[in-house]
Amino acid sequence: MLLNLIAGHDEKDSTSVDIEKKDYTKALKKDVKGLKIGVPKEYFGEGINEEVREKVKEAIKKYEELGATIEECSLDIADEALAVYYIIACAEASSNLGRFDGIRYGYRTKNFKTLKDIYRNSRSEGFGPEVKRRIILGTYVLSSGYYDAYYKKAQKVRTLIRKEFEKLFEKYDVLLTPTSPTVAYEIGTKSNNPLEMYLADLCTVTVNIAGLPGISVPCGVNSKGMPIGMQLIGKPFDEETILRAAYTYEQDTKFRENYKPEFKK
Amino acid sequence: MSREDYEIVIGLEVHSELSTKTKIFCSCPTEFGGEPNTHCCPVCMAMPGTLPVLNEKVVEYAIKAGLATNCEIASISKNDRKNYFYPDLPKAYQISQYDMPLCEHGYIEIEVNGEKKKIGLTRIHIEEDAGKLNHDDYGRGSLVDLNRAGVPLIEIVSEPDLRSSEEVDLYLKKLKSILEYIEVSDCKMQEGSLRADVNVSVRKKGQKEFGTRTEMKNMNSFRSIVRAIDYEAERQIEVLEDGGKIDQETLRWDDVSGKTFPMRDKEDAQDYRYFPDPDLVAIKISEEMKENIRKSLPEMPESRKERYINEYKLPEYDSNILISSKYFSDLFEGATKICNNPKSVSNWIMTDITKELNEKELEPSDIPFTAEELGKLVVLIDKGTISSSIAKKVLDEMFKEPRDPQKIIEEKGWVQISDEGAIKEIVLKIIEANPQSVADFKAGKDKAVGFLVGQAMKETKGKANPQMLNKMFIEELKK
Fold first, then answer.
1. Closest chain B residue to A89 measured between Cα atoms?
2. Is A264 within the bounds of a domain?
3. Which 70-109 residues of chain A touch chain B by CB within 8 A?
């Protein structure tokens, strides 16, 4: 229902595509017979937690039982997608956040004599470490002398990634991967290592880079009771197919009814 | 070596505000003036979460300018972000165009000492203007006015083809007139609608490589540009003659002292980190759109000139002055339609109207009255309703408070006396009062008539018909 509301062209957003709106509630049907699901092997190798791998594989079996055709495939630029994502996202962020300069709105330092002080101190005092990290990274990849090697190259690789997906979607209706390489960490355990944090996005950033719809569906818990998710990726603007596939699985396994989460403090 | 051994090389980047109704990425008005921060919205104030939407008219106007200056028009173009911090730039980046401008490889033709010369145009691209800082006179701080932020600009970049301040002056005047003709900019210099960055270098004659250039930014008067170029070229030659080196730097021209000064230290060299704006999509220009815009281009000055010479039988000199400004040219054509006396209209524009503009430091676009009103003024002279000296007074009135010239002469009681009885009465009165002149005439001094006519005009405050006076004086004196 939310998707029905937010879908469609927004005249105040030039990047939104002007195509006909669909009623996505009609896609909620229990039927995956003959659905061709591709499983990129790169998402089941190193770096993916054992239990996560197992649960997602069980889900794949379930789809097979329900009548879908499963086939292993290859998406060998999966690793590059993460690098591309962080270069492009940081570059855009470094520029987008320029407007928080302490002039018109937001935090302004009390400690300044010159215009440069306002900029430097407002931004140093106002932004948190992760934001600063991304601004510095983004500024670097856009700098003259580095632009071609990083930002421009990332945009080129992005096009390659999109083409890779296009090729896969000639054969498959849906691609299936884990949502995250690991289950959720406990609060406060990993925030000191930004690179590891970035790696957690390995499976999900690809769809953003390639411009594809994705949906995450719970498919089990690990030995400690932490939930595990699988991700279904569809063709551009084909949200209906992934919704139908997710709905079919969900209605069959009733994950939500059998899962009693326990919140740790 | 002397000054004559050097050649001056100049390239210009001209910024011209487009006269679209709304801004380039939002629907705020572009109108000049207005209370500070009343012509802005969340988009041009760069509120978080807002997105730009490109105004199609801006693309159309830029393509018009490109076609009128013989440019190739791109089929695909895009917007890029130019990142830098300044309080008048609310997003901390300016949306401009970097490596895929809308128009490229054009030229403008100027006439230098009777010879035609093509000045190459590297490119024309679209971008948004920044806001304005109002500096407090007491040094307490500066206030930001964002009315101008997001007003569309085109930047017209010339090749370094200009060789003297005179050529620059001709080039700028030509460019200004083209932009006026195609109605994409009102080119009001005092409102900053036309500003130029001027790049100057010098080199020994015959030398192939360019010398190191300096740049003078944001100049908004043709006269200052000419003076600044002359000064800067002279300065560079002097430095070189003394065995020195020119630094590549940005200079500020000071109109009062007539000198240039370094603007910022070179360590501050900016890295603008250009990259394609992810909030906007590629600009696609179809052949059909280009063709439609080409067809919509109005008659250009050169073609008008031909017409003036052939159809209206005007001298080339007149025609050149008339086409120098679209406002002159339109005024001329409109007025001629009313009075059917092209030469007279042309004379009024070239002499009295130009004189009035120069005295008041106004531009042709500031002429307050309409072409119809000027045409009617000429009709009144041609019909003998007023003399040309009265007409000058009417024109003064039209500049002060534009209205129908017929009304002006009625209000002021300036209708020419062409009634024979009335003229005769004046003639007799003057003859009686000037016996010496009468004696002179009779002694064969024809000049005496002129003096008497002058006296009669004085008596009637210029209202008497001078031809009739002349004729009647001779008749009476010969009696």
1. B278
2. no
3. 91-92, 95, 98-101, 103-105
